[in-house]
Amino acid sequence: MTEPLMIRGRPPRSTAVALLQAQGLPVSDITDEHLEHFFFIGSDGSPTGLVGLEIYGTDALLRSLVVGDNVRRKGLGSELVQHAEQYAASKSVRSIYLLTTTAEAFFKRLGYERIDRSQAPPSIERTREFASLCPASSAFMVKCL
Questions:
Q1: In what order do the strands lie in the sheet with 38-42?
Q2: Which of helix, strand or coil describes residue 74?
Q3: What pTM did the predictor assign?
Q4: Tens digit of pLDDT for each residue in 46-59?
Q5: DSSP code string of 34-58
Q6: What span, in angstroms and rounded, lies between the C-alpha atoms of 76 and 40?
Q7: Which residues pair with residue 50 across a beta bridge?
Q8: Angle made by CA atoms 134, 136, 137, in degrees to the nearest 5
Q9: With contact defined as beta carbons under 8 Å apart, do 55 and 63 qualify?
Q10: Is 83 within 8 Å of 8 (Cβ atoms)?
Q11: How many CA within 13 A on the CB side of residue 17?
């Protein structure tokens, strides 16, 4: 039997940014305020996985899912997404949206469905991630909780 993962909230900003940059993910809008709804696995100084949410009422944007190269294919990404979904549900979120250029198949396996960007609610359209940080070619996906 494997030991349950220790997922903690509010990663240190410097280490979160370093992990995201190492995987080529956007960091220019990551603030201490954003990190209120971020979760990580690993030590404060060296997180091995990270996921974040931006919550807008009953909608949320899942962002910044990253797992270090050295711990891939062990289920950490799925565990982090599941934790974020449970947290979002506890905050009365009904729909989680995301943008991805590389992980569409992964999110499809987790129950996310690709939709047209024109279907984004205004709160998600206004995010920097949607409006400018992620390319228009990104897959836009949603999961209803």
A1: 7-9, 38-42, 47-56, 59-67, 95-100, 139-144, 113-115
A2: coil
A3: 0.90
A4: 888 999 999 999 99
A5: GGGGEEEEE-SSSEEEEEEEEEETT
A6: 10
A7: 40, 66
A8: 100
A9: no
A10: no
A11: 10
* DSSP secondary structure string for all residues of 75-110: SHHHHHHHHHHHHHHHTT--EEEEEESS-HHHHHHT
Closest CA to 75 of 35, 46, 48, 102: 48
Q: What's the pLDDT tens digit per position in 59-106? A: 999 998 999 877 788 889 999 999 999 999 999 999 999 999 889 999
Domains of the chain: 7-144 (3.40.630.30)
Say if residues 7 and 37 touch (Cβ distance below 8 Å): no
Per-residue pLDDT at 4: 57
CA dihedral sign of residues 32, 62, 83, 70: negative
Tokens standing for residue 82: 């599941």
Q: What is the Cα–Cα distance from 64 to 17, expressed in whole angstroms? A: 10
Tokens in use for 108? 């499809």
- Residue 93 tokens read as 């979120």
What is the DSSP pairing of strand 59-67 with strand 95-100?
parallel
